[in-house]
Sequence to fold (897 residues):
Amino acid sequence: MQLSVNGNSYDVDVEDDMPLLWVLRDELGIHGPKYGCGIAQCGACTVHIDGESVRSCSYAVGDVDGEITTIEGLGTPDALHAVQQAWITHQVAQCGYCQSGQIMEAAAFLATNINPTDTDIDDAMSANLCRCGTYPRIRVAIKSAAATLRGA
Amino acid sequence: MGRIKSIARRTFLIGSAAIVGGVAFGYYAYKKPIANPLLDDLADGAAAITPYVLIDQNGITLITPRTDVGQGAYSVQAALIAEELDVRLDQVNIDPGKPSTAYYNGKVAFEGFPLAATDSSYIAQKGRVMGDVAGKLLGLQLTGGSSTVSDAYEKLRMAGAVARATLLAAAAQKTYIDVTDLKTRDGAVLFPDGSTISYLELAPVAATIEPVTEISLKPESEWRYLGKDMQRLDIVSKSTGTQSYGIDVVMDGMVFATVRTNPRRGDMISYDDTAAKNMRGVNNIVPITGGIGVIADNTWRAFQAAHAVEFNWGPAPYPKTTDDMWAVVGDSFTKKLQDSQFTDDGDVDEALAVADVLEAEYRIPYLAHAPLEPMTATVLLTDIRLDIWTATQIPRFMQANAAKLTGLDVDDVHIHVLMSGGSFGRRLEDDYVLQAVEIAQTIKGTPVKMTWQREQDMTHDFPRPMQMSRARGAVKDGQVDALDLGIAAQSVTASQIGRVGLPVAGPDMMIVAGAWDQPFSIPNYRVTGFRVPEMVPVSSWRSVGASGNGFLHDCFLDELIHVAGADPLEERIRLCWHEPSRKVLEAVGEMSNWGSKMGPNRGRGVAFTLSFGVPVAEVIEVTNTADGIRIDKAYVAAEVGRVMDPVNFDNQVQGGLIWGLSHAIYGALTFDDGMPEQDNYDTYEVMRMYQTPEIIVRGLENSDQIRGIGEPPVPPAAPALANAIFAATGKRIRELPLIKHIDFV
Fold:
């Protein structure tokens, strides 16, 4: 089957019901999306399909119909997305394992709302868990990224 | 405070090997210098001036042997060396190094001794030296006990200073310019005429001279990095998906594996893999200790096949249900199972022979570590060597255990320590690594990446022990007069230290940590530890004994203060004899505007725990809404002597508080039919962003003891929340998780 990931197209020979996460990680070697729970409870595996955030651990690859973007496609160390820049400026990460998913969730959310209230942020981000407890910094970083995206 | 009654006659866990009759030899062995492991395979012209600084064709590499589990250990270790070596952090590589006794932890063993951190007596000072002796003799290359900074604070600055002085001497030798006329800046030696020579160019000369050990450390006023906001070395990689963790290892020809082992932690009686072994991509299914390993060409296919195997599991080697376990814990308050009584001030029995004695029983459950990156290890085994790539806090113990398992020499076992997606103490165990080695034994010459499913991770943790306390207390003239606290718990230290093969003897301070050593002068004050027989094997969980005892001790103190009719903060301050601790209480009072009016259905609670030498006071404000308790705001004041990096300090304190609150509200690992009833985050719930309060943090620097901050913010979180709920609702909750007794928003 054909997949388009971060602008590259790939031909993969896998079962339709293999979760997208494991196609990305083990078949394509794209390791930004992480395995945390396998049941869409933690959000560490979050990627975009046509700009919308999905939990790739619970999204069958056969159901993918659109362009996949992983954190590697959002921005790179040399060409950061505004959300990644905010994550660096506010030093969000501790262990960092959930942060690919947090950043992808935040980027998808800010694409639809560049003027979020505190409640908007909590509502958008509460399905992504962080064991290290970086939630306060994530809030600050999202506000900062929103300001950048508004051109403020 | 004369709490140390008989150190010489007692033995202590961890330290016992060094202390039982072995001090003379031990002292000799302690004095003996340890070989520099970097010299073993040093290239020509490269210099390894100390075990922490390597200069070769790859540039300057700083060795940071304490594992980064998210707490920022790599960054702070690098900064300590760089400060004295005089290099910028963007000029250096960092490497966790290889297992070596040179990287022993001299501070972590101290936690095994019954010496309160607030004790500055001669015996306590001696005991701290003995902790260092024990750490060195046992080669405790271990990350834990919030000891990275306290252990490294002088050691790594000295290492940087020795390296710098040696490079200066090399420059002097090379140029015949007097060393006193030379300076350094950013990885180079500066000559009087303004020209420079880089450390890299000086390495071949430096390698030929004896390290210069006549050095002095910079005064704090000249620090360029320490004490100032730093950028974590891993912040860009962790914000761009480019950080590689244990789970991300890729090797040529690698196969993917997973395991399923008995959820009752007993034997596997039989299994049927007829369906599983014919599934797509499955290479082999092999028996391992207590279960099976599946080898496949993709992790998910290995997971699927593991699910398709049918098992006949043996019984659990512990009681079948949580209720049965509580019965064992409840039966442990006996003279026979008494483990310690290091605090016994005044005359508790007489003080409690009064009419109004307050009695209370508290309970806390088993808790899983559940770091977000599940256990994983990549192993390549051949007939002559074993390589292991994994995130671990115990590289040397793992090396020894892997050598024993394979029959290889320890020197032929190579441990490559990788970045860890959280740990909270879980990676102080090597069970998962040994499983990967067992699988690799069936497929020698092929690298195997083994990944646990979340369900395996949650159901095969070595949890924090369940604990019960029975407390009695009395008040007199509006003040707390007597507190008699008995705590029953399994011994984390005996369970865990037994597994890594160190000697186990004496009382376990962790049963009472965070309770026996609190700096309060209550006139009649007794803390007794009771050792519950081993049930589910237990281990260190972020802040270890204090994590639960903070709740057991502080909430009961809060109850007594309310009975006395005193103010919760004022009475704690009045009772506190230790000045740095009193100052954190005063600080958190000021920060939270303690005593100011709160609206209807609102309340605030204060709690204090001193753990790992760090006094921490927390105030939490809650509102009792129609939908349940909402946590509005939290304030934390902590004393660490010197804050190394204010940004990371703030992040660690916030994270520690959230960790404490999250488990206080939800955390419980319960058992039925010998199996954990929670196996993923849907049943083992954790705090989410919408529940997280605003958190105000202040670091105090009043003490001369330099301490770490990874764990100490955890213990006061649960009692501060429970005390706040009492203030808002009048409901005193004596059992965790709180969600069993009250709703949360």
